[in-house]
Design goal:
By secondary structure, the protein is mostly helical. The chain has helices at about 1-25, 30-50, 50-70.
Length: about 70
């Protein structure tokens, strides 16, 4: 009985593993996860460092869009 339960758990795990692989279509190993985390840290640091410049840029872009939107109509 115990062997059947272990087999069922293994089968469920195997099916779950196949589903996850199909959804992601890639396997992330530990190095890949660390790389993604480091990239996110760098991007967040850049946003914090250049926060004022980015805010000005976005405001200028939206201002330009608003100004030119009136000329379309």
């Amino acid at each position: 009985m115990k062997r059947n339960a272990e087999k069922n758990v293994w089968n469920i795990w195997s099916v779950w593993n196949q589903i996850v692989k199909k959804i992601t279509n890639t396997e992330l190993d530990a190095v890949g996860v660390v790389e993604v985390i480091l990239i996110l840290v760098v991007l967040i640091a850049l946003v914090i460092i250049f926060q004022e410049q980015l805010t000005q840029l976005v405001n200028n872009i939206f201002s330009s869009i608003r100004d030119k939107a009136g000329t379309i109509y």
